[in-house]
Design goal:
The protein is α/β, with parallel strands linked by helices. It is built from twelve helices and ten strands. Helix 1 (20-32) packs parallel to helix 2 (52-66) and helix 4 runs parallel beside helix 6 (144-153).
Length: 291
Amino acid sequence: MFEGTHTALVTPFRDDRFDVEAFRALIEFQIAEGISGIVPVGTTGESPTLTHEEHSEVIRTAVQAAAGRCKVIAGTGSNSTAEAISLTAEAAKIGADAVLLVAPYYNRPSQEGLYLHFRAIAEAVDIPIILYSIPGRCGVEIGIETVARLAADCPNIVAIKEAGGNVERVSQLRAALPESFEILSGDDSLTLPFMSVGAVGVISVASNIIPREVSHLVGAWQAGKHEAAAKLHAKWYPFFKSLFIETNPVPIKAALAFQDKMSADVRLPLAPLSETNAAGLRAVLREYHLI
């Protein structure tokens, strides 16, 4: 269902307002380059700083722009279960194909709390759900046993975006889950290692800029062309790492601005990329002939 490359889209701003034109152009570029799906208003889309109205507007714009040409996986997670249910129901109403639910951040719930949180959302909607475990951002990991319980008890929880940086955990997830339950890498630099032990694709930050190249890497592995995939991983690994020299999505937005695709604007409390890191990122982009 979610094999392939899905882009964790940035949310372009201009003068602190959602830049609809730049967002639509980014989606057209993604589709033209052969992306499998797009993920509006995830972490990369600065979801915590959007109003509920903006959140819905970004998802609606993505659904309309995609027009059925690729999957739309809407970020609808929250540290409030009631809010996550509301956002998820709205995304389903708008026409998203699936939703991405990040673990509740700051609250630091127990594993039982996580289970009850995700189960409540799943029972409130019919839309397919992808769990999102990123302990570095949330302060809590969705435990393997918890994922297995949710997969068994909630038919519409069908996948997980794994961003804990641990290849062994992917092996453990794969062993604990039914074959139909899909695992997606949440880190560009770990896509190839994760796929080697059972992941079926990636939700990518880098594909905002290089969707075709990331798709080729994933596709090569899926096609059994493991040597070709390894070469692509080695080629693009420095680029992947350069996009995390500061907090995501600050570097990726700066890179897109260097390409004149949008403003580099981010919302507080995020700050613009430092001059030193901006110079380094510009040099990397030049090295890869991206500017």
